[in-house]
């Protein structure tokens, strides 16, 4: 049996099945070529990992294995699409936790092989990068080139997105990823894991000006990031209170002050990055931290005064999901960029290597 060969420019009209298993979300979606969502399902493993205060790779892999097959058959049934009618199968093949990547890509390859479909090994970061181009998300379609601010639990970088598979890194974090900083500060403040969403809720009732936390690298040339000093400053402030004596007011003020510091730093770094990306007028924010309303607001304001636009997908498409994987599959298949079935999943896989 030979796989149908797709040439660049060929019409890819059928829906694509997308699978995401790179971290702690088991997700599957069926998306048609016009961006119409035919079915979508997402199972968060937060409850499985919360007792450990972070993702336990072995637990994640086992949970993906337990739930992915039924999730996939469920979305296919809901979409009313037979496997043979798919234009292709796309699965996150990296970067991420290897156990989950093996589960997701293994199932995707099996389906592709059994039904003679093209397989697309999707880079998770590229999926975040291209989500903004999903038809119907923004009033004006998001066109290349644009500057991507990718802010998630494992990544914090500014990337010039020139085209599908063409990325230029402008800067990245020197220590922690920004989502990691949210999670660690959340833990310091006694919030449940993951800290980001809980910290945003707590910060809503806090005073962002009470604690003058540092703004690492603010105003410095380039667009690298650093968050460990900021995290340490919060830890030192928390340590000034005897264990158990941190008031709800102080915790909320610390959350708000930390969030404000992060937002100001991100806005400053993006303003520098845009100067490095000559002629680019649009910034796209993506990744879990881009779901944060205070950060979106700060970024919007900083770009607006410079006459630049910000686009951030709706929060549920900023955090990990399978629609972004299916959409990346469409973007790639349209260019004839399918993958060989022996493509091995990669725990590390920088965008710039695409
Ligand atoms: O993109 P994502 O779902 O997974 C990765 O690829 O890492 O991002 C998860 C990260 C976590 O660190 C989480 O705490 C953070 O994004 N996050 C947030 C918010 N929602 C998720 N951080 C700040 N504010 C939020 N609302
Ligand atoms: Zn992600």
Describe this structure in words.
The chain is α/β, with parallel strands linked by helices. It has two domains: 16-132 and 320-353, ATPase, nucleotide binding domain (Nucleotidyltransferase, domain 5, 2-Layer Sandwich), CATH 3.30.420; 141-312, 2-Layer Sandwich (Nucleotidyltransferase, domain 5), CATH 3.30.420.40. The protein contains eleven helices and ten strands. The chain has helices at residues 46-49, 57-79, 98-115, 124-130, 178-188, 195-203, 228-239, 248-276, 293-304, 315-318, 323-334, and strands at 16-20, 25-31, 37-44, 88-94, 119-123, 146-151, 156-163, 166-172, 282-286, 309-311. A five-stranded mixed sheet has the order 3-2-1-4-5, sandwiched between helices. It has a five-stranded mixed sheet with strand order 8-7-6-9-10. A hairpin with a 4-residue loop joins β1 and β2. α4 crosses α11 (323-334), α5 crosses α6 and α7 runs antiparallel to α8 (248-276). The chain starts with 15 loop residues before the first strand and ends in a 20-residue tail after the last helix. The relative contact order is 0.18. The site of 5'-O-[(R)-(carboxyoxy)(hydroxy)phosphoryl]adenosine (KG4) has 19 residues, from α5 and α6.
């Amino acid at each position: 049996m030979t796989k149908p060969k797709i040439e660049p420019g060929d019409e890819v009209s059928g829906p694509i099945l997308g699978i995401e298993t790179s971290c702690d979300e088991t997700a599957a979606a069926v998306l048609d070529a016009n961006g119409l969502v035919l079915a979508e399902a997402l199972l968060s493993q937060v409850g499985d990992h919360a007792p450990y205060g972070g993702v336990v790779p072995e637990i994640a892999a086992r949970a993906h294995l337990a739930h992915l097959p039924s999730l996939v058959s469920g979305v296919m049934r809901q979409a009313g699409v037979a496997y043979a009618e798919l234009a292709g199968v796309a699965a996150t093949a990296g970067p991420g936790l290897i156990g989950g990547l093996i589960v997701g890509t293994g199932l995707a390859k099996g389906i592709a092989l059994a039904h003679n479909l093209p397989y697309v090994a999707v880079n998770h970061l590229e999926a975040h990068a291209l989500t903004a181009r999903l038809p119907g998300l923004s009033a004006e379609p998001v066109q290349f080139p644009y500057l991507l601010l990718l802010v998630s639990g494992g990544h914090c970088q500014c990337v010039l997105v020139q085209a599908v598979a063409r990325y230029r890194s402008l800067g990245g974090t020197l220590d922690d990823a920004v989502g990691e900083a949210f999670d660690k500060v959340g833990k310091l403040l006694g919030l449940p894991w993951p800290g980001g969403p809980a910290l945003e809720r707590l910060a809503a009732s806090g005073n962002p000006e009470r604690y003058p936390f540092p703004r690492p690298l603010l105003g410095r040339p380039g667009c690298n990031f650093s968050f460990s000093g900021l995290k340490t400053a919060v830890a030192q402030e928390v340590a000034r209170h005897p264990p158990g004596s941190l008031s709800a007011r102080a915790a909320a003020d610390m959350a708000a002050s930390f969030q404000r510091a992060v937002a100001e730093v991100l806005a400053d770094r993006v303003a520098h990055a845009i100067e490095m990306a000559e002629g680019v007028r649009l910034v796209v924010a993506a990744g879990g931290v881009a779901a944060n309303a205070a950060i979106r607001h700060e970024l919007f304001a900083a770009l607006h005064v410079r006459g630049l636009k910000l686009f951030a997908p709706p929060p549920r498409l900023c955090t990990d999901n399978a629609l972004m994987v299916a959409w990346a599959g469409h973007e790639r298949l349209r260019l004839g960029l399918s993958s060989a079935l022996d493509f091995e999943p990669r725990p590390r896989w920088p965008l710039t290597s695409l």
